[in-house]
Write a structure and sequence with these properties.
Shape: globular
Strand content: 25-35%
Helix content: 10-25%
Largest sheet: 6 strands, antiparallel
Strand order of the largest sheet: 8-7-10-5-12-21
Radius of gyration: 30 Å
Distance between the termini: 43 Å
Number of strands: 50
Bound molecules: zinc ion
Number of helices: 17
């Protein structure tokens, strides 16, 4: 949203009348419905059709306007809900202009260059298709280099590339990964003669090598991609990488190819970036944690006295296989003991194989050969006592919770050859003397998840039953059904035996993969529906099918499809609650259950009573680690891209349930570019973000104790010695965003995507906000907010609609983005009618209308929403306009106390990721302007930072129920504690 200038649009309320939107300053973004808009006189060939992330290089001249037209061609499937995002990137990596383009639209964006020379346009199309056009005379070229392909669909070209002087050969890499997709390519020399004209499926990334004859260097060659002629081979996604001997530009004209090449030379000596994070000597002492009942209370997620925030914590995931019996392991953890240590399958009973030799790893790891050899009851006994000692030593070294890996569904082997789990099942009774319960009568093959036709339901891509699961070579990987008595019994035993080792809980992988349609599940589904619906309501919702005869639906996006998903969530909830109870009973104290399953739908209905939930964030355009990615686009431009996890943290918090968020981020997948790796400062940022936004979660660090020691010790010390800044609080915000993930089950794919866009918009504008999801969509939850935003919230039940209408009628301000409540929960169209609620549905775009004692505004785009707010909602200002949007803010307060406290968290995301990254860019001159609760004043202000030994006090300034605070230089993270007093 950089430089979007959308506050140009002004909303205001006038008594009894409608006021039109007026424009204050020129808006550079012009959106229009899709039509042919090639500017008159343009003669360029059609622009390539782009997918995923691409870059265009532009030669700019100081003082001249760069103007770009971007088109987002929609995909047929509505499942792809992201919009096209374009950014014009200055040579210094900051953004000069940007645009978000909805499917089926085109947009023009522009900026005046205050530099001479090369800059870039970044085009992020996601799964949509994009085209960009520039003014005819603007020299430009597409970026294409090794590991930086131009990513297109459809035919294109010719595009030209420059072959530098004295080049004897060059390579071009081609890839069309999907089966049955291929390509035809033509490479021509400077005389326009084809030197290679071939086609193929290019399923693997393929090198094309071309010799350069004497006299054909120092000139532009060309490449063209066209449809393969071979039958059954289609042209779709194609990746083209120019090899290391070529400058990384594909230009529409030979002259531009040569212009962008400039004096580029292949440098065989060019240093490869350092690929690994280096260990450093620790500068601070290990922090082994605070102990005692007081700190236990700050970590307690107990809901008995209502919901409040808890203490955030440090967290390490370590899937190593050589922990048990390794004398160096516990001392290594002791150099920076995390609060939560998540291990691999360091358990006596492996969920998938039974008692086997190998330890560590997740499901796929150690699934062959001697690793899966069954161990004897005596060896299991020895293992239990060894694990007990190890866990005990970890506790003594400061680890609070040790949670090994189990899986909620996976069972491995071959039921006919009686290998893997079946071998153990056939010897189950040998292990009874260890305290193992009776053997389930039904063979494990009958525990498996099924399709409605009774065939085995697999979650893995291999040809079952003709092949085996590739990582296991000789065995299958099956998914078991929680509604089968055998799997329930066995998984509870796995958990009970982990608890026997003193382990504090379990991580449950694949926790949301209970999507079985076996007869047991069908019967349970029917019982579930009968409990939820009267016969009459069921008839209306499900097209008059009797609940005794109802089947699992095949059609998506229907009320019954939503119910099937809710039933699966209920299955997962029951599974996790059962495991927690079994573990707690054995352990004699509370046993932690920590599922993997970062889907908002499932968290809200299935995982809300678990202790933690992991968001496994593997894929992002720049990896998913929090911070600034300094991404080299080509020589002369290094883009500053940003990642954060604010949506995940705040969504889990908004449920106000037991569960707390945990973020797993990656440098990339499957490649891990060194520029996207998590260095120690970025690790600090990840923990700071968690402290600021989660209300009690964790941020995953890998067991690189040599890299993260100081960061982890510093943050754990800060959290545990300042629990009043984190625990026992409620969120402090005047704006709510309706975030209802179940819209997805009802065919509204746009809603959650718009919520995420809005999240970026609000955090960049420094507006304090909460989400409100379906689970709490009631008037009593809404009435604490001055503004409620409804982004593309299209399917709204009558009771949800009433909650919103009551909120508005009693004085609230609803800001609708796009469509609102056009259908009810049976998916029938809602008629506006003519009652006092009608304005909720009929207010035109750009208008604010009175409605009861409140008001309703509507805008069509996320970027326009802020204009409808009125003043005083942005609480942070910063003079540096490039850095300011990446400073993010969140606030909590002590609920229900007039003389309580407000705690404000300020996080600087201008922290470069990568190996050998520069230091964080500090931000100066930040000013807070905090609104106070009615009837209070600020008594004192203290400011903290994890790297500072003691807080500093700041002067109290302010009027009219607000307090102004000038923040000293912000490195990564500061916390401001405002103590309040009653107003006289
Ligand atoms: Zn089932």
């Amino acid at each position: 949203m950089e430089n979007f200038q959308n506050r140009a649009t002004l909303f205001s309320i006038q008594e009894g009348s409608r006021m039109k939107v007026s424009s204050l300053v020129a808006v550079v973004v012009i959106a229009s419905a899709l039509r042919s808009t090639m500017e008159a006189g343009e003669t360029q060939p059609p622009a390539p059709t782009l997918r995923h992330v691409n870059y265009v290089a532009i030669h700019a001249r100081r003082g001249k306007q760069i103007r770009c037209q971007a088109t987002c061609l929609p995909r047929r499937s509505s499942a792809y809900r992201d919009s096209l995002k374009c950014r014009l990137v200055r040579p210094d990596g900051f953004v000069a202009a940007s645009a978000r383009v909805q499917p089926g639209e085109e947009t023009t964006f522009a900026a005046n260059a205050d530099w001479d020379g090369i800059c870039a346009i970044e085009i992020r199309a996601g799964w949509h298709l994009a085209q960009v056009r520039l003014k005819e005379k603007t020299p430009h070229a597409y970026r294409s280099c090794v590991h930086g392909p131009m990513k297109t669909v459809r035919a294109w070209g010719p595009l030209y590339f420059h072959v530098p002087k004295a080049t004897r050969y060059f390579n071009i890499w081609l890839h069309a990964s999907v089966t049955r997709e291929g390509l035809h390519y033509t490479i021509k020399n400077p005389d326009g003669e084809a030197v290679r004209d071939e086609e193929g499926d290019f399923d693997a990334r393929t090198k094309i090598q071309i010799q350069v004859p004497h006299g054909q260097d120092a000139a532009a060659w060309s490449i063209e991609i066209s449809k393969p002629k071979q039958q059954g081979l289609y042209l779709d996604d194609v990746y083209v990488e120019l090899g290391r001997h070529l400058p990384p530009f594909l230009a529409p004209t030979p002259e531009w190819a040569t212009l962008f090449a400039g004096d580029w030379r292949y440098d065989p000596q060019a240093l490869k970036p350092q690929a690994r994070l280096r260990d450093t000597k620790p500068k601070i002492e290990p922090f082994r944690g605070v102990t005692g009942p007081e700190i236990d209370r700050t970590y307690s997620r107990d809901m008995a006295k209502g919901w409040h925030t808890t203490l955030p914590f440090t967290y390490v995931l370590d899937y190593g296989s050589k922990h048990l019996g390794n004398a160096d392991y516990v001392p290594m953890v002791g150099t920076a003991p995390p609060v939560l240590l998540h291990l691999g399958k360091d358990v006596p009973l492996n969920h998938g194989w039974g008692p086997v030799k190998a330890l560590g790893g997740e499901n796929q790891a150690y699934g062959t050969g001697t690793h899966i050899e069954r161990i004897s009851p005596a060896q299991v006994r020895e293992r239990i006592s060894g694990l007990r000692k190890m866990v005990d030593a970890l506790h003594k070294n400061g680890v609070r919770w040790v949670t090994p890996y189990i899986c909620g569904m996976t069972v491995n082997g071959d039921h006919e050859r009686r290998t893997g789990f079946w071998d153990f099942y056939d010897h189950w009774d040998d292990y009874r003397p260890l305290g193992l319960g009776p053997r389930p009568k039904d063979d494990p093959f009958n525990w498996l998840q099924r399709h409605p036709d009774g065939t085995v339901r697999q979650y893995y891509r291999y040809d079952y039953p003709d092949e085996h699961y590739p990582p296991f070579k000789e065995n299958h990987r099956y998914a078991a059904c929680w509604h089968s008595e055998g799997w329930r019994t066995w998984l509870c035993e796995v958990v009970r035996f982990a608890a026997k080792c003193g382990q504090d809980g379990v991580f449950v992988d694949n926790a949301c993969s209970q999507r079985c349609q076996c007869d047991r599940c069908l019967a349970a589904f029917r019982r579930y529906l009968k409990m939820r619906f009267t016969a009459e309501r069921a008839r209306r919702l499900f097209d008059s099918v009797s609940l005794d005869a109802i089947a699992f639906p095949e059609k998506k996006n229907t009320p019954l499809y939503a119910e099937m998903n809710r039933f699966w969530c209920e299955t997962v909830r029951d599974e996790l609650a059962t495991l927690k109870a079994a573990g707690s009973k054995e352990l004699g104290r509370e046993f932690v259950v920590f599922p993997n399953g970062g889907r908002p739908t499932f968290i809200q209905r299935g995982l809300m009573d678990a202790d933690f939930v992991m968001f496994e964030k593997s894929h992002g355009d720049y990896g998913t680690h929090p911070g600034t990615v300094l991404s080299p686009v080509f020589e002369g431009v290094t883009l500053r891209a940003y990642n954060d996890n604010i949506f995940e943290h705040k969504f889990v918090q908004c449920l106000r349930r037991r569960v707390k968020p945990i973020i797993l981020s990656r440098a990339g997948w499957p490649r891990r570019p060194p520029s996207q790796m998590l260095n120690a400062n970025a690790a600090r940022l990840g923990m700071a973000e968690c402290g600021a936004f989660s209300g009690g979660g964790g941020f995953l660090l890998r067991p690189n104790f040599g890299v993260y020691h100081d960061a982890m010790n510093e943050y754990r010390r800060f959290f545990e010695t300042h629990p009043q800044l984190y625990a026992g609080l409620d969120s402090y915000a005047r704006v709510a965003v309706l975030a209802c993930p179940e819209q997805q089950w009802l065919g509204n794919a746009a809603h959650m995507g718009t919520v995420r866009s809005l999240t970026d918009c609000l955090t960049e504008a420094h507006v304090l906000f909460d989400y409100v999801s379906e689970a709490r969509l009631e008037k009593s939850a809404l009435e604490r907010y001055a503004i409620v935003l409804a982004p593309e919230f299209r399917v709204v039940s009558d009771s949800q609609f009433s909650a919103v209408a009551d909120y508005v009628n009693s004085g609230g301000h609803l800001v609708v983005i796009g469509d609102f409540a056009v259908r009810d929960d049976s998916l029938a169209e809602r008629q506006p009618g003519s009652n006092e609620r009608a304005p909720l549905l009929t207010v035109p775009a750009g208008i604010t209308e009175r409605c009861g004692r409140g008001s309703v505004s509507r805008c069509m785009r996320v970027e326009e929403a802020l204009a409808a707010f009125g003043d005083g909602f942005s609480v942070l200002a910063c003079p540096n306009k490039d850095l300011a949007p990446r400073v993010k803010i969140n606030a909590f307060h002590t609920p229900g106390e007039s003389a309580g406290r407000i705690v404000v968290h300020v996080v600087n995301y201008n922290v470069p990721l990568g190996v050998d990254a520069p230091e964080p860019t500090p931000v100066d001159g930040i000013e807070l302007d905090m609104p106070l609760p009615k009837g209070t004043r600020t008594r004192s202000i203290a400011i903290y930072a994890p790297e500072e030994a003691a807080p500093a006090s700041l002067p109290v300034n302010g009027t009219n129920g607000r307090t102004h605070i000038r923040i000293p230089e912000l490195q990564i993270y500061r916390v401001i504690e405002m103590r309040l007093a009653p107003l006289q």
